[in-house]
Every structure is written in C-alpha cells, then in structure tokens.
Design goal:
This protein has 265 residues and is of the alpha/beta class. The protein has ten helices and ten strands. Strands 3-2-1-4-8-6-9 form a seven-stranded mixed β-sheet, sandwiched between helices. Strands 5-10-7 form a three-stranded mixed β-sheet. Strand 1, helix 1 and strand 2 form a beta-alpha-beta unit.
C-alpha cells in the first residue's frame, strides 16, 4: 500500500502555519506523516509545531536548519531524504488546504507522472481577518479570495485534464506531488539555488528531462495562498541562469542535490 508524506515548507509565520494545520485536521483523507521543512525559524515556530504534533494522530516530523538566508532547496531535500514514504505531496506553510486536497492528489497518482494543482489567492485586505477568524473554508462567493473560479471543486471536470510532456506556466511549487523515487532519480532539489526563486520550476524541468509527464489538478487539489509581501529577489538573476542552463542542456541530475543527505538519513 502506498505511503504518503505531506511536506510543508515554512519560515517564521506561526499564524499561517497554525491555520494550515487546522486545514489538515479537516481533511477527508490524511497522509501517513507530515514533514515540516523549516528554513531557520525561531523558537516560536518550534514550540508551535511541538504543540500541533500532540493534536495529530499521525507523525509530525520537524526538520530545521540554521537561518543563513533563503535555502529552501536544502531543507526540502533533508526532509524528503528522511522520509520513508513512497509519495510526496508538497505545499508551503502559507497555504490553507481544501478539505479534499490530500484525497485529490492521492486519487490522481500515476506512474511516470507528477501533479500540480490550483492556487487560490487570499486578498491582502482580508489576510488579518482570515488569520484572526481562522477561516479554512471558502467558496465561489467568499469575499476574501480572488480567482474565485479556482475554488470550484468538481472531480468529474478534473478528469478532463490529461497528462502533458512540457512544463506548464501554471506550475507552482506550493502545490505539487511526486513519487519519492522519481525525486531521488533526478537528485532532488538543486541546493545551489539560494535566495528566492526558480528552485521549484528547475526541478520540474529535470523531471521532464528525465521522462516524466505532468498533470494539472484543475477543479481538484486546491490550496488557498495567504498573501504576504514578496521575498527579496536579490539572487534571482543567478537562479534564472541556472534554470536556463538546465533547459538548454537538458540536465537531469542535480550535482548539488539530495544524495549527500541520503547517505546520512
């Protein structure tokens, strides 16, 4: 039987992470474990995760690294290396899950395929209301969100979307799932990506170079992204160049990837 991990990337936003966990508790189907990939949060986040773990009936595992700037790729690799699940469902710690989120991803798993889902944005002017009132359920009439059509959950329409062989412009790393064995086959995230941007789309490029197809979860696999100010993009030019190199040279294997963590996990 396939075992599944829900992987959550987080950094110093306990109010959002608490709401994410509330939405996990509301799931119609739970994963086998939760992996928290923490890119250097303070003690407040550690204490919250410890408290939330006590409320869950599945394992919650917290992976932390020292705050030396944006090093999301590295902590994600560390968390996945330590997991023994077959399948990884990845979100960010500012994404509230639709109640059928886990169920939708699992229902669409297929060999040779990774999945990416829809992201509905919480409007900036309603972020404080959503956090204070701990809102986790939205619909097409909810004033707190934009992209309202993306909140429609219609699995029968979701089946109309078929696998494709090219990376989509709609791909977002905050809502993606893949086989752990496929992730390891391309050596995971490239840890040379530091600073915000492109570590997720570059991974998707290598998935395709490896021979995987992608499938969009439209009308299924929905997350609600809580608005926040943009991260610093000071390193984005360098990251763009690395991604272009992967595209031009059809690179599959990340030379600075997960293998170093697998040896010690």
């Amino acid at each position: 039987m396939m075992k599944t991990s829900l992987l959550i990337a987080t950094y110093n936003w306990v109010e959002a992470l608490q709401l994410v966990f509330k939405s996990i508790q509301n799931q119609t189907q739970l994963p086998d474990e939760i992996l928290i990939a923490d890119d250097g949060s303070t003690e407040e986040t550690k204490q919250l995760i410890s408290h939330l773990a006590e409320q869950m009936n599945i394992p919650v595992r917290h992976f932390w690294q020292e705050d030396k700037g944006f090093r999301k790729a590295k902590i994600l690799n560390k968390a996945i290396a330590a997991s023994h699940s077959d399948y990884i469902i990845q979100i960010d710690g500012d994404c509230i899950l639709h109640k059928n989120f886990i169920k939708d991803h699992i229902a669409n798993v297929s060999n040779g395929l990774y999945l990416y889902g829809a992201r509905v944005n919480v409007l900036p002017q309603y972020v404080s209301d959503v956090l204070e009132e701990e809102l986790i359920e939205f619909n097409i009439f909810s004033k707190e969100i934009k992209n309202k059509n993306r909140t429609l959950h219609m699995p029968f329409l979701a089946r109309l979307y078929k696998p494709h062989t090219e990376i989509s412009k709609k791909f977002r790393g905050c809502n993606v799932s893949f086989w752990r064995k496929d992730f390891i086959a391309v050596n995971g995230y490239n840890e040379s990506f530091e600073g915000w941007g492109r570590e997720d789309s570059e991974l998707a490029l290598r998935f395709h170079n490896y021979g995987l197809s992608a499938q969009r979860l439209k009308f299924a696999g929905i997350v609600y992204h809580i608005f926040h100010t943009e991260k610093s993009k000071h390193h984005l030019d360098v990251n763009n160049e690395m991604e272009i190199n992967t595209l031009k040279n059809k690179i599959v294997w990340a030379s600075n990837g997960i293998d170093k963590h697998l040896k010690t996990s």
